[in-house]
Amino acid sequence: MSSGSVLLLTVLLIGYIYWSLAQPTNTMQIRCKLKKPVKDPETECRYGVFINACGKQACISGPGEFCAESSTDTVLWGKCAHDLLCCRGQCRGCTAQGVCFDKPCQPPREHDMQHRSDPYMPQRHLNPLYAFFDYYGSE
After folding, report:
1. Comparing 26-35, 80-89, 126-135, which segment has the lowest mean pLDDT?
2. How far apart are CA 79 and CA 91, in angstroms?
3. pLDDT tens figures, 7-16
């Protein structure tokens, strides 16, 4: 191998290492690179702006718009206006201007074995074959 080839290979290797170290390494850095800052807040943002975790201005979400509850997710989805509540990814409630989104907020199903007294638990029906094979059911 000639010295020119070794030098070229060394330069390419160092360039690749430098490039890979400059890339975002965690989820927050990647989200901050993906999200574009607001250019004109007065025309783009109906409900105002806030400074997100990246230090950039972002629009505040209004009724029925997407939102996030954790600070890392607010980079992508935003946060709700002051009078609204973020429930399962949507801003719910009414703003001071009278704009409302009143769809009820149901808690997420954690698993299939919730209590029967839970009002959000779907009605369960037994398989009709179960009664046929239930030996003790006739007592």
Report:
1. 126-135
2. 8
3. 888 988 888 8
Residue type, 39: K
Multiple choice CATH, 27-102, 1.10.12, 1.10.3470, 3.30.70, 4.10.40: 4.10.40
> Within a 13 Å sphere around the CA of 134, how many CA atoms are in the beta-carbon half?
10
Q: Would you put residue 128 in left (φ > 0), alpha (ψ -120 to 50) or beta?
A: alpha
Residue in 92, 83, 101 with CA at minimum distance from that of residue 47: 83
Token pair 């890979």: residue: 20
**b/e map of 117-127 (b: 16 or more CB within 10 Å)?**
eeeeeeeeeee
- What distance in Å separates the CA atoms of residue 80 and residue 69, rounded to the nearest whole number? 9
Domain ranges of the chain: 27-102
SS3 74: helix
pLDDT tens, residue by residue, 122-139: 555 555 555 555 555 555
